[in-house]
Design brief:
This protein is α/β, with parallel strands linked by helices. Helices cover 28% and strands 21% of the residues. The protein is globular and about 75 Å long. The chain starts with 19 loop residues before the first helix and ends with a helix. The relative contact order is 0.13. Bound molecules: 5'-O-[(S)-ethoxy(hydroxy)phosphoryl]adenosine. Residues 294, 339-341, 415-418, 440-445, 466, 539-541, 553, 555-556, 562, 567 line the site of 5'-O-[(S)-ethoxy(hydroxy)phosphoryl]adenosine.
């Protein structure tokens, strides 16, 4: 366990006694569902010849098909460079600019086409159609401001803490135009969490907004910027400029004072840069496009580095073939851009293809559960992308709502967590009206884009399974000893990928050893080898593979809990809990949750002489909200007299998870204090 001020910087070698995968329910095999002839006839990947093009013998050259979707300033000479495993390099020698590929090159044919249609939460505010021309103008102006006012240079890191407003993709693209590395922190994360990420990335500039709407409230967001800057300063990182967008131009929605010389309203400065153009900086394919922080096994978050050429090719290619985006489609991905799904499948993939995307502020169920379907009907959305938690929530609060609206989806996606077959069927029958193909896309922050998914026109769907590996990606399940767990064996194991792919992250920012240890050391066959075949990627997920080759993801096998598709590290939760002075020890465990898939329960002990009280549990909740954000709020906090421990004083979370989930607690004979197990069980299970 780590104290808050004693962040664990060891490489995170997965070593867990309880994992999400272990608490997963057992599913039976499900029958196939088939795409309609109408869908197949129009699909981007309708010809089975594509499978041959991406076969293992054509690896890695097959990925030219994806790279050729982009406009390169200089073509690459080496498709895959494996000289420094596992730091793979793709399209070496190539040069390009991501912003140019997402904006400028569409102007000739599609200047007046909407890139984004943005739906604000208040229903009296107008929907905004941001054309490619308008996006071009706004990105250029903001890039000029970043460069000439904020001093941002190629290679600098810029932290963004923006909600779901058009300014977010504009700021990302402006950074990309300059060759600066953006690091967007999910707006729901606390100021402290944002500050830790600023300090790790050593950003000198923070871009934020005064406030935004969520479920009827105008939230004060700028206050978090002050906390973030203070937190970064404690870690020796000085933020020189805070650029504050205003949700309503000219009106300030925050109580936080503007700090003289540090904080600036963007709408005050932008007029100086009106119509200013900034030439896109031609970047090497391997230059880092952005950082995306995610949780791992230690308290310190991991800044996953994504490349410009490989990443952009990969998200463009997978958007084309797995989301089946055509120029005339209207696409709506429900994710927040603050997560990898939004980066890859709201911003970079769809824009690289010149897509019209819907973006919205607020939540799907406010003011009522009909909101998504009203928007889909009004804007003619035909591709819909969301998560199991959203589907479960919409089913619960408005099971009959979709039928009231006249929209038609050709394709729907689910991402981020395992989907229960019953929920899948409701998605298919009720939201998809039995017409839409579903792609269940399995992937991760680290992987840049989809890894497991069936090609929508060429393979049937199976509820609860993400399908086989995607084009050019060859997954395998290994057991703990590195032996292949064969398809159809019914045995679970660790989901791994045998080969590199262009979207794979380049490393963890400033933690190269942790990168190698966490993802490659476990199954590396020979650390001296330069052959990618000796370096399988370990995903940290448990899975089973059916006889037909389809994978079913069970959940994490490491110290990560996936709550509503948001990754939380048990160590981060425990560190936050330990900031409460009365708490002596803490353990976070996953529990099954009807709505969010998994939820977190905290077990804590108190320091000697401290009496249990609701004030203490409230303090724990508050501490977690302050350190991480409201999304990490535990479902229950159990104050107990002692935690089950081994003789070497290691807390046995597995036993606590067994109690929380009413499942077998397993062997307790190796415990130093076996008597506490019954005591905790009685107290907790009685209270549930
Ligand atoms: C889980 C989100 C089952 C998995 C894109 C993974 C899934 C983690 C699926 C990554 C899916 C993602 N089915 N589980 N289709 N997609 N996961 O980094 O446990 O936020 O390791 O990336 O979500 O979460 P992350």
């Amino acid at each position: 366990m780590v104290a808050a001020d004693d962040r664990d910087t060891r490489a995170d070698v997965p070593e867990v006694e309880v994992s999400e995968a272990q608490i997963a329910v057992h599913w039976r095999e499900e029958p196939y569902y088939y795409p309609s002839a109408k869908f197949i006839a129009q699909a981007n990947a309708g010809d089975p010849a594509i499978l041959e093009r991406f076969s293992e013998q054509n690896f890695p050259e097959c990925f030219r098909v994806y790279a050729d979707l982009l406009s390169w300033d200089a073509y690459w000479h080496t498709t895959l460079d494996t000289s420094n495993p596992p730091f793979w390099k793709w399209f070496v020698g190539g040069r390009l600019n991501a912003c140019y590929n997402c904006v400028d090159r569409h102007l000739a044919a599609s200047a007046n086409k909407a890139a984004f249609i943005w739906v604000p939460e208040p229903e009296n505010e107008p929907t905004l159609a941001l054309t490619y021309q308008e996006l071009y103008r706004r990105v250029n102006e903001f890039a000029a401001l970043l460069r000439d006012f904020a001093g941002v240079k190629t290679g600098d890191r810029v932290t963004l803490h923006l909600p779901m407003v058009p300014e977010l993709p504009i700021a990302m693209l402006a950074c990309a135009r300059l060759g600066a590395i953006h690091s967007q922190v999910f707006a729901g994360f606390s100021g402290a969490a944002c500050g830790d990420r600023i300090a790790d990335a050593e950003s000198k500039v923070l871009i934020t907004m005064d406030g935004y709407y969520r479920a009827g409230d105008l939230l004060d967001h700028k206050v978090k910027a002050d906390e973030a800057v203070a937190r970064a300063a404690q870690q020796g990182c000085t933020v020189e400029k805070v650029l504050v967008f205003r949700r309503h131009a000219g009106q300030y929605a925050s109580k936080s004072p503007m700090v003289d010389g540090r904080d600036f309203f963007v709408d005050d400065i932008l007029p100086q840069f009106r119509n200013k153009l900034v030439a896109p900086v031609s970047m090497p394919a391997e230059s880092t496009l952005f950082l995306m922080y995610t949780s791992g096994t230690t308290g310190r978050p991991k800044g996953c580095q994504h490349s410009t050429g490989g990443y952009l090719s990969y998200v463009a290619g997978t958007s084309k073939y797995y989301l089946d985006i055509h120029p005339e489609d209207t696409y709506w991905c429900f994710a927040d851009i603050g997560w990898i799904t939004g980066h890859s499948y709201i911003v970079y993939g769809p824009l690289a293809l010149g897509t019209t995307s819907v973006m919205y502020e607020g939540t799907p169920t406010y003011p009522d559960a009909g909101r998504p379907w009203r928007i889909a009907e009004r804007l003619g959305v035909n591709i819909f992308h969301t998560s199991p938690t959203t589907i479960r929530m919409l089913r619960k609060v408005g099971p009959d709502e979709p039928a009231k609206y006249n929209y038609h989806f050709k394709l729907m996606t689910t991402v981020g967590e395992p989907i229960e077959p019953d929920v899948w069927r409701w998605y298919y029958d009720v939201i998809g009206k039995g017409e839409a193909v579903i792609t269940d896309t399995w992937w991760q922050t680290e992987t840049g884009g989809f890894l497991g998914c069936q090609l929508p026109a060429l393979a049937p769907m199976k509820p609860g399974s993400c399908g086989p590996g995607v084009l050019g990606v060859f997954p395998v399940i290994y057991d703990e000893n590195g032996e292949v767990v064969p398809p159809g064996s019914g045995r679970a194991g660790n989901m791994c990928i045998r080969n590199p792919w262009p979207g794979v992250f380049q490393g963890i920012w400033k933690q190269p050893e942790r990168f190698v240890q966490t993802y490659y050391a476990k199954y590396c066959r020979n650390p001296e080898s330069k052959d990618w075949r000796d370096w399988p990627y370990f995903s940290g997920d448990g899975a089973v593979q059916a006889a037909d080759g389809y994978f079913r993801i069970l959940g994490r096998v490491d110290d990560v809990i996936n709550v509503a598709g948001h990754r939380l590290g048990t160590k981060e939760l425990e560190s936050a809990t330990l900031t409460v002075p009365e708490i002596a020890e803490a353990a976070a465990v996953p529990v099954m949750d009807e709505l969010r898939g998994r939820a977190v329960e905290m077990y804590v002990t108190l320091k000697p002489g401290v009496a249990a009280s609701t004030e203490i549990t409230e303090k724990v909740t508050k501490a977690i909200e302050t350190e991480i954000g409201k999304i990490a709020r535990p479902k229950s906090i159990w104050i107990v007299s002692d935690l089950p421990k081994t003789r070497s004083a290691k807390i046995m979370r597995r036993i606590l998870a067994g109690i929380s989930n009413f499942t077998d607690v397993g062997d307790t004979t190796t415990l130093a204090n076996p008597e506490v197990v019954e005591e905790i069980r009685r107290a907790v299970q009685k209270a549930k």
